[in-house]
Amino acid sequence: MRVLSFGVALSGAVVWATFLGACGSDDGISTFHAPSPWKLDAGGVAAPSGKLDAASGTTGSPLLVGVGSSDAGAWADSAVDAVDADGALAVAVSQSTVDVTYGQATPTVTASASINGQPVAASFSIDRGQVGSINASTGVLVPTGIVGGVVTVTATFGAQQATVQITVRVQWVQDGGGDVETDAGDAGDAGADSGGYGGSGGVGGEGIGGPVGPTAATAFQGSPAADSSLSLLYPYDQTIWPQGILAPLLQWSTTESYDAVSIHLQENAFDYQGYFAKTATPFIHHPIPQPAWDALAASNQGEAVTVTLVFAAGGVAYGPITETWQIAQGSLTGTVYYNSYGTNLAHNYCCTLGGAKFGGATLGIKRGATDPVLIAGNDSECRVCHIVSANGSRLVTSRGESTSDLGSSSYALTGGLAETVMSPDDGRYNWGAIDPTGSFLLTNNAPVQGGGYSGTTQILGIGDGGIVPSTGIPDGLEVGSPVFSPDGMHVAFNLYAGSSPDGGTADGKSLAMMDYDPATGAFSNFQTIYTPPSGYTVWPSFLPASNAIVFELETVSNGRWGETRKCPGGSSCSNPGTQAQLWWVDVATKQAVPLSNLNGVGYLPMASEAGHADDTVFNYEPTVNPVPSGGYAWVVFTSRRLYGNIATIDPYWSDPRYFDLTASPTPKKLWVAAIDLNAPAGTDPSHPAFYLPAQELLAGNSRGYWVVDACAQNGSSCLTGDQCCGGYCSDSDGGLVCSDQPPACSTEYDKCTQTSDCCGAAEGMQCIGGRCALASPPPPPTVIR
User: Fold this and answer.
1) Could you tell me which CATH number the domain at 187-331 has?
2) pTM of this prediction?
């Protein structure tokens, strides 16, 4: 099963394990070729046939030599007696660049070592096992044939080491899906070709098309004609993708009736050309095959990805459409817990427009799935409005058995989802700020549905509901949609009502914050961070370093605090529907600006006739993953924007009691965007968003809480330190296990207290939110041509 993961960078061995199932097979490798810039003959000259010389795959490059230090320390190898011990170790390779056909392990590259021109019996190793393997004694490097990239070969002889780099470039030409697995899953109740609750491949559409046939194949060999009606609806240009995400569904608009599509993905060390026949009429979307997407992401080392689409109809090619994407050098783990009102995984409400029962529940998008899973709620109990601790240990939901029910339940996410009914049932637990450990919460006073606690703002224990002693909360202060920072040292909120510390009256729209000391329970340093000239702030969420806050600025209200819908019910109503955009504010300077790239300003497609004249105002409810990855923070948010040509109905049509959502997905969905870490105040650090795969396609989804998975105890196997309760993932007898013992230096995602704790601090690694992480995307390596 494909892995949808959130928050941590996978090691090379683990990434390679993803592709083991593709080795030893030539399924999907076609003899149908189109011209490619990498197709070279044995002399390094472009072959007239336009086909890769698979027999050699060479560029004719001369030997590339790397020279090590001349350290004449203790020599472990007696072979040094045959050479000058004062000479420097040099390593050479038979070719600096090798072109490999996908699925093949040839050609190979041979490394050799010498001192003063005399061969020595060095030991060889490489740094990226997913690209290839090398024989330690012979120096023969064998490509995996799946992943490309720049690898560093290290020769070790005695106390000396020398390195040299090789670029392995993988090329894949595919005509039709063949036996390529798409992990569509069981269609279940969601439709014959939908692939399950998350849609085909977790993203919708009809799956992979077949071979294109001779007419389209001939068309693709020629120059495409222009199609003025053609545009790419999704994904967006300049999107930043994490590694480990499910492949996107390419979606376009045209007045032509296309028969086939050519999908060309190109980066420094991976080139994919796929040709697919139409999967439906009209033919308006097609996925990137998951194996190709996996190989592309694993081969990427920070360089840009160019995607080019060309279409065929009646023997004529049309296009091209070209976009540029980036792939972050880090995967994401954790779980997104979200509200679903209209889910098919629980049936506790009656009735849909068609008379069937539907559900209100909390769902989760877990690693390794193309569909969501039911977390809280069942066929008789609604559990939908929720908060989650950043460490993934505790979830609190409102019970929602009726419109007047203010009761709450707590779920131990590490204890088999055991439910504890909380008391009293006066709304005091709903929509509060839960601390990162899941031990207590700060009450919410704003009248969010199911909430609006009328008592004094205070700290309450999750376990027993008792008041947790605290000091420093201003008398009479009432806060709305509060949230703790990932380190638990700050809390941000809407200054909803009551008195502010300076004796003034809360305005109900400003964003404010206080510091908090978990050891003493003391709040301090109350400050108003941002007051909008109009509208009000709601749903703040801290960036991982706690130095900035992402929040929703609601500009048009439906009359009910913090909602996203048009009206409580009915197909028509007098209120205009909630409109909002996402903003961010730098805490130190208090400069706030809209996240225009995330909101979609300047590029979102329009469908005015369906209510999508300006989808940039339909962005709500952000939460930020507490662990940065690949040099970025990652925010998940609710949006009512068009999802290409899959979810295209009116943005506010999301209540199954009044609209038929069984065949036409509502646009109320979860989206994800990358945010630059340490961005200058007053700038826009965001990037275009992508649709969150595996969410339920035929349901309205909102309020995603993105948290890490609950930590593992010492001695448990791990990949990275943020999976461990002790904070470190350490090598023990050849395996990685959780530990609470600090290493000589902390690797990426291990615990830290200051940047000097981190390995690679001089190369840009920083201590961010108590974890070592890249502060910015690493530059791509130099590719040897």
Assistant:
1) 2.60.40.10
2) 0.89
